[in-house]
Amino acid sequence: MGAKADRARKALDAMKLLGFSKKQSTPVLRRLLKIFNDNWEPIEDECYRALADAILDAQDNNQTPASQQVMQCIASFIGQPYQQTFTHPYSRYILGLLYQGTEAAQEDLEPHVTTRDDRHTYASAGEDDNETPLVKRPRMGTSEFGHQLQPGPLQPTGSAQGASASPETHRSLMLAQQAADHGDPSAIGDALILKEPKPEPQINVAQVKACRDARATSDAIDFNVGSSGAGARGRVVNQAQSLDSSLQAVPMGNNRVVSTVQNTQDASSVEVDVASSTNGEVKMSLKCNLDLSKFSISMEDVFKMVEEKCLHSYKVLPPDFSIGKLMSEVCQSVAQLGTRHADVHSNSGGLHKEAVAPFVQPIACKVAVGTNDNGAGGSSVLESSEPCLQNSIVAWDPELANCKRRTTHDVTDISKGEERIRITVVNEFGSETCPPSFFYIPRNLVFQNAYVNISIARIGDEDCCADCSGNCLSASLPCACARATGGDYVYTPEGLLKTAFIDEWTSVNLFPEKHHRFYCKACPLERSKNEASPDPCKGHLVRKFVKECWSKCGCGMQCGNRVIQRGITCRLQVFFTREGKGWGLRTLEDLPKGAFVCEYVGEVLTSSELYERAIESARNGKHMHQVLLDADWGSEGVLRDEEALGIDGTFYGNVGRFINHRCYDANLVQIPVEVETPDHHYYHLAFFTTKKVEAFEELTWDYGIDFDDVDGPCKAFRCMCGSRYCRDPRSTRRMDRAAGRN
Ligand SMILES: C[S@@+](CC[C@H](N)C(=O)[O-])C[C@H]1O[C@@H](n2cnc3c(N)ncnc32)[C@H](O)[C@@H]1O
Questions:
Q1: Strand runs labelled E in 179-264
Q2: Domain count of the chain?
Q3: What Pfam families does the record point to (predicted)?
């Protein structure tokens, strides 16, 4: 028996001991081997924990979709049997992708395929609830203050690859699951990080088994859901009664979508039918083979029962979860897809335009100009007498964002579809339904004078790996891009930043006094404050860079040395903090140490533009939210103004602008990442986790504020981070510490 077969046998034996059959374990093992490029170690680690987790995950995927829960509830109300015998279509889809190219793909999957549009259709039928972690993952445990807080150089804690194979494995699989939860098959490709993108399978309609033993009298349950999202009405009708005449059910491809939930073994089926009219109404109906003629069912009771069932199945749902809302969202999605469809048609000559539903407002809230809608809530943003620009965030005044323009936030996705994953907004404590106004941008934009020269010609051979192919991390020798980090890649094969690097960066940020500072001869910052006689430079921390492969490299987008350029992949939520810090950002899933969360994104400004904005805001008694890109100013000689850059997330930004400050033991660290430009005038500022973070924990970073600097021009907010190491002398934690109470 070959070594590989021997290892496979051992793995299957180990699974057998855990109660998993060979049939259950074999395809999952094949899949893991593919994910890990035939590397057995992460699979064998911790007594095959990754394999066991993956098998459980595959089983988890057999969740009951909400539409089917509705049918079950109705069946149970009228006392008819309802037997669930199907597989979750998305889990099937994930498996389809994971198994592609393997024998298992052909062996294990029934012919079930769906087109991109049909997946939307199915998602519309109540499957795609991105707002909530429908499948609660097992927690990985959090080590409190997981990294060193003692001054002094941090010791690398060993190779991250070996040290935490299991959580990393877990994360790969979680990402795949979450991608499927989101109905985003393209995300699955990335979740698998090292897999080549595969062509999508093709079929017309999402089909799953359902309603096995139901009687065949074809009744329909119609839900009239207001397109404004105001609520949901329902009634049960006989199939003979068709959709209201006001709602023209037009053929699929215009404004009607039909998703058949069908048992492939018998003829019974549940049909989800969504139609929209030209006056903006959207109507959804579920048709099932149940004899409802003798029963009068309250939709309220049905919804309540479905909600309870969802809670039972999915474990974690937001407090305001309701089937009514889910239905509303289905209707909005139909309308939005209809609008996109309209655009396509109008661009191609306006044909069919009249058949398309007008745009229906998303669940949204408008923020009025000039309202005193300070997202920072109870936190005291003290006003500065003088504009201030430091190496990190100084203070933030969301009101300032309001004074320029007013925008509308979609609380079901603050990114308005700009990110690959939806980012919801919730406020469990206050009356403000959404954060103050700003424009969401997923990537930095140059404001005006900043010199951001992205040019292929400027990238020399030494700054790219043109001869590479596929995934640089699996090459026998590190490519040229790894030279920037001492010839070693900073990422693990699972896409996590290695522990040694995180600890090093964290140390620089936490203990700047222990690290090298660069003092400019002619500091651009001081120059922008006073060109005629600038003050001496106050020093800039020298920070190490990550260098990712990019377009001039021969590798592909799936290369393991490309992480931040793929964008946000973890499930995030903007929420209102209870401590009075205003809005914050949290994760909805467990994250291992080293996970990329998001970039700090905003307008790229020159140091004098930043300063001008700071003056303007100080004049209004306001502060701004600016970060300097000064990590490598020391190697640049004398910088011209247009080369000394910073990022301002006040008016245009991404979720990074919601990350609050925490003294010392923050769970994120900001790291400079070079992607498109070899010089370090411009770079990306990326947030990675410094330790394991549990689902629903707030994400924080240490702004580096010196709270003791009471004489300086900048008056920091009163810190409410709650850390036992809080530096703010006004914080109760620090006062307690000073009094020897903790
Ligand atoms: C980058 S913004 C973070 C998002 C902000 N909380 C919001 O509502 O938009 C920074 C501002 O948040 C508030 N903030 C952040 N961390 C804080 C903390 N630890 N304690 C009190 N306020 C905090 C301060 O008003 C600060 O100026």
A1: 219-225, 232-238, 256-262
A2: 3
A3: Pre-SET (PF05033), SET (PF00856), WIYLD (PF10440)
**Mean pLDDT taken over the chain:** 66
Identify the helix (H) or strand (E) that includes residue 668. Answer: strand 668-674
pLDDT digits (tens, 9 = 90+) for 256-274: 444 444 443 333 455 666 6
pLDDT surpassing 70 at residue 684: yes
Does the CB atom of residue 701 touch ligand 1 within 6 A?
no
The rounded Å distance from CA 425 to ligand 1 centre is 16
pLDDT range class, residue 242, cuts 50, 70, 90: very low
In angstroms, the CA 427 to CA 8 distance is 49
Encoding tokens for residue 206? 């999402």
The CB of 583 under 6 Å from ligand 1? The reply is: yes
Residues 102 and 31 in one domain: yes
Whether 552 and 677 share a structural domain: yes
The encoded tokens of residue 469 equal 């192919």
SS3 content of the chain, % helix, strand, coil (to 5): 30, 15, 55
Q: How many residues does the chain have?
A: 742
* 434 found inside a domain: yes
Pocket-testing residue among 396, 578, 687, ligand 1, by greatest number of atoms within 8 A of Cβ: 396
Domain span at residue 30?
A: 3-111+128-190
Whether residues 180 and 221 fall in one domain: no
Is the CB of 602 within 6 Å of ligand 1? no
Complex ipTM value: 1.00
Q: Are strands 282-288 and 269-276 parallel, antiparallel or unpaired?
A: antiparallel
What integer pLDDT is reported at residue 665 of this predicted model? Answer: 93
What pTM does this model have? 0.53
Pairing of β 517-518 and β 546-547: unpaired
In angstroms, what is the span from residue 378 Cα to ligand 1's centroid? 10
In the structure encoding, which two tokens stand for residue 490, read together?
């900073």
Amino acid at 343: D
Write the Ramachandran bin of 398: left for phi over 0, alpha for psi from -120 to 50, otherwise beta: alpha
